[in-house]
Every structure is written in structure tokens, then in C-alpha cells.
Write a structure and sequence with these properties.
The chain has 369 residues and is of the alpha+beta class. It contains nine helices and 19 strands. The chain has helices spanning 11-20, 28-31, 90-102, 107-139, 187-200, 212-220, 222-227, 244-253, 308-311, and strands at residues 34-36, 41-46, 73-78, 81-88, 141-143, 157-159, 167-169, 207-211, 230-233, 236-239, 258-262, 266-269, 275-278, 290-294, 301-304, 318-322, 325-333, 336-349, 357-360. It is globular.
């Protein structure tokens, strides 16, 4: 390891760049905002949050009735490192030297070459957190494998412990949301049923979260269109595929939760460097199945632990942070290479999952199958 080869890179310039750089907004901080912790282990207390328990009416001079504590499930694990790196090799460094020699006329290209790898690494770390969070919300689990993560996989499946009673399916095959059964399915009835079931269990559902393709299926349903509005054309009422605003206004009027759409695509690069655009809301087989019902947002937190590169920085490395993401730059001599790395130690926790419900819209027998 050597100091950064690029003259423009120092701790000061790297810090200034990251401080001023505005990156695209992602969904995961809204659902699992960052909380810094001092340990690399995580613990989720499922059931630690729940509905309030009423006190009792008693007579004067009597003791307060004793209440039991809610049964709490404990999930523990290690906060995993999330890392991405990119080399600037000899050919790239030759381009860098040429652009510098040409002066200000190619300044934009030069700056893109100098700082492009920094953006790539920050975006890459946050893209993985987006992938983890949305996978968790879609089905209640995170599945890591050689297809969706090129690193060494130490645990292929993380189950956030959604209760079996909170895993819902449809009543019949003609009730599926995305098989073209738009005249017979009943998404509004699904919502009413789950909201009532949750309320009976002490959970007040306020949000329905789905991806865009599931939303398109939802708004195409005849039942949904009957609940919203129609347009009078040539002497006849024509049903419309409603907007999100129209649907949410209708749901609020009916005392039902509102819909939140998660619309994202993340590129996954394999160890063989093949790149595939992925919707993390889809299950491991690429099926679009799930709709999440939640009592509140955010759902939990993303626990961020200490990073060794930050606490024990090699003398040759130049480092700076963008939020929770640490960016490191250094050089090598054989062959001459400029390295950029982004990393964090982070993982989502979901203590309120026992108060959430998930509907498998594409099954009437077994959840997730």
C-alpha cells in the first residue's frame, strides 16, 4: 500500500467533496434509518414495542394490580461488513495524465475520472443497504447467495421472524393480483380483512407498502376501479385506472391505510463481472408476490458499527466519510494502481415485525410458495 497516486486527492479535498456531494435519494433510510452503535453485534427485541395496556380502576387504599411483561423474542447476530472497491489501472492513469496535460478544456472529464470512483463506491454501499432493506420488507427475510452477492456468504438466509399468523394468502386462485384475474380479484377486501385481523391483535395498520409492478396490478383491478372514479364519455361511464393520489384519498375516506410505493432497481455484479438490473422486492425466484402492512414508519433501524479502517487507519490511506460510508484511497506500485474503496458495517433490525402483516398476493395455499 502506498499513498494516493492522484495529486488532487488529500484528506481535505476528499472530505470537502463528500461533504458537498448530493447523492440520489434512496428508500432504505425512510424505513430503517441509521443508528450508530459501539459494537459489531446486533440484537433485535421482537415484541418490545406494541399496543398500550390499560391500567385498572381500583379502590382507594388498594395496591396497583400487577401486569405481566409481553413475551419478547430475541434475535442476535453480527453486523456484517459491506464493501466495494474499484481500481484505476495503468490505462486509466495514462488517461488521467493526458487530461491533466490538456488543461482546463477537459476539466469535466478530468474531474469525472478523479471523483467518479468515489461516487461509485458510495453509491455501491448504499445500494446494498437498499437491497437488504427492501428484501426484508418484501417477504420478511433476506436471502444472500452467489447470485446476488459476490462476497463470501456466511449465512444464506436471515429470517426476521414474521409470525406465522401474520403471513397471509388469498382465498382462491382467481383472487391473485397479477395473473390477469382483474375482474374477480378483491384487493380492497384483502386490505379490509388484514386491517381487521391486525386490529383484533392490537395492531393499527397505517401503511401498505408495495413495489410499482404490484401497484399497477392493484390499480387495474375492477374492484379498485369501482372504489375510485369513472369518466362519463359518450353517454356511458368509463372506469379509470386510478392514480395513487385517488386511491389513497379513497382509502382514507374508508378509514383504511394508505399505499406507499417502493420503486427501485439495483445492479448486481457477480464475481464473473456480469451485471444484472434487479428489483429487490421480487423473491429469490424473481416472482412479484408480496405486499407489506405496517402500523408505523420507520419499521426499525439500520445499526452501523465501528469500521477498522477508520479506527486503525494505515498511514498510506486517505480516508473521509459520507454519513456512515467510509471512503478510502491508496496506491499500489506493482502494477501501478489507484484504489478506491467504500465500506460500512451495517445491518437492518426490525423490532416491530410482530405488529406487521405480509400478504402473498400470488398464492391461496402456502405463503411464499
Amino acid at each position: 500500500m502506498e499513498h494516493s497516486i492522484l495529486e488532487e486527492v488529500s484528506a481535505k479535498t476528499l472530505g470537502i467533496y463528500l461533504k458537498n456531494r448530493v447523492y440520489d435519494k434512496l428508500y432504505w433510510p425512510d424505513f430503517f434509518p441509521v443508528r450508530h452503535v459501539n459494537s459489531l453485534s446486533w440484537e433485535t427485541l421482537i415484541g418490545s414495542k406494541g399496543n398500550r395496556v390499560a391500567a385498572d380502576v381500583v379502590s382507594y387504599n388498594s395496591s396497583a394490580p400487577v401486569k405481566t411483561r409481553k413475551v419478547v423474542s430475541r434475535l442476535t447476530g453480527e453486523i456484517p461488513p459491506i464493501r466495494i472497491s474499484r481500481p484505476m489501472r495503468e490505462t486509466d492513469l495514462n488517461d488521467y495524465n493526458v487530461l491533466k496535460a490538456m488543461g482546463t478544456q477537459n476539466m469535466d472529464q478530468l474531474l469525472a475520472l478523479i471523483f467518479g470512483d468515489i461516487d461509485f463506491c458510495v453509491d455501491g454501499v448504499n445500494a446494498r443497504l437498499e437491497h437488504l432493506a427492501i428484501q426484508a420488507m418484501a417477504g420478511g427475510t433476506i436471502d444472500l447467495n452467489t447470485t446476488n452477492s459476490a462476497g463470501i456468504i456466511t449465512q444464506s438466509s436471515i429470517d426476521f421472524q414474521l409470525p406465522a399468523t401474520n403471513k397471509e394468502v388469498n382465498s382462491a386462485a382467481d383472487q391473485y393480483w397479477t395473473t390477469g384475474a382483474y375482474a374477480s380479484n378483491a384487493p380492497i377486501t384483502n386490505i379490509e380483512t388484514i386491517v381487521a385481523e391486525a386490529r383484533a391483535a392490537g395492531s393499527s395498520i397505517k401503511y401498505i407498502v408495495m413495489n410499482r409492478s404490484k401497484w399497477i396490478a392493484f390499480r387495474t383491478s375492477t374492484q379498485v376501479q369501482n372504489y375510485t372514479s369513472a369518466l362519463f364519455v359518450s353517454g356511458a361511464w368509463v372506469k379509470l385506472a386510478p392514480s395513487l393520489k385517488m386511491v389513497n384519498e379513497m382509502l382514507v375516506e374508508q378509514g383504511l391505510p394508505t399505499i406507499v410505493i417502493v420503486d427501485t432497481s439495483i445492479d448486481i455484479e457477480t464475481s464473473a463481472h456480469g451485471i444484472t438490473a434487479t428489483d429487490p422486492w421480487l423473491d429469490a425466484d424473481g416472482a412479484d408476490r408480496y405486499v407489506l402492512f405496517a402500523p408505523d414508519l420507520p419499521l426499525g433501524e439500520t445499526l452501523v458499527g465501528p469500521i477498522a479502517m477508520e479506527t486503525n487507519t494505515p498511514k498510506q490511506a486517505t480516508i473521509a466519510k459520507k454519513g456512515h460510508v467510509l471512503v478510502s484511497k491508496w496506491g499500489e506500485t506493482n502494477p501501478v494502481t489507484e484504489w478506491t474503496m467504500g465500506e460500512t458495517n451495517a445491518f437492518p433490525t426490525w423490532p416491530t415485525i410482530d405488529m406487521c402483516w405480509i400478504l402473498d398476493t400470488e398464492s391461496h395455499t402456502t405463503y411464499g410458495a
